[in-house]
Each structure stands twice: as C-alpha cells, then as structure tokens.
Amino acid sequence: MQVPVLHRLTHGVTCKEATQLVSKMQDQRLSLGERLRLRLHLLICAACARFERQMRLLRVAMRKYRE
C-alpha cells in the first residue's frame, strides 16, 4: 500500500534516515519529497545539519585533491 504524498512530506525524518539521505545525496539527486523532508529535519536538528555540512566539506576537499 502506497503512503499518500502529503503524509510522507509531513512525516518526520529520523536522524538515521536523515544521514542516509545525506549520504544518498552525495551519489544521486534526491526526489523532491526526499529533499523537502531532509531540509525540514536539518532545520530542527543541529547534529544532522552539522553532518550534512561535514559531508559537503569532504566532497569539496576531495574534488580539490583530485585537481
């Protein structure tokens, strides 16, 4: 049974799910719903927001290292 879109958007994301989405985001584009849910979580969770910033920093550092 498929969960309605509105419910998926308003359903809270756990920290575990948020870190999985941040990791997934490094390799592929997230769906609109995933991006919205992740952004909402990052607004209220300092630890996950810090993790997301660290992942972005690592990605930039790796790009510069390869150059």
Description:
- With about 70 residues, the protein is an all-alpha fold.
- The protein has one domain.
- It is built from four helices and no strands.
- α2 crosses α3 and α2 packs parallel to α4.
- It is globular.
- The termini are far apart.
- The model has no long low-confidence stretch (mean pLDDT about 85).
Q: Summarize this, please?
A:
The protein has four helices and no strands.
List the helices and strands and how they pair.
Layout: H1 5-10, H2 15-27, H3 32-44, H4 46-66
Helix pairs in contact: 2-3, 2-4, 3-4
Which key features would you list for this structure?
mainly alpha, globular, single chain, 4 helices, 67 residues
Helical content, roughly?
Answer: over 70%
Number of domains: 1
- Overall 3D geometry? globular
Content of β-strand: under 5%
Order of helices and strands: HHHH
Gap between N and C termini:
48 Å
Mean pLDDT, as a whole number? 87
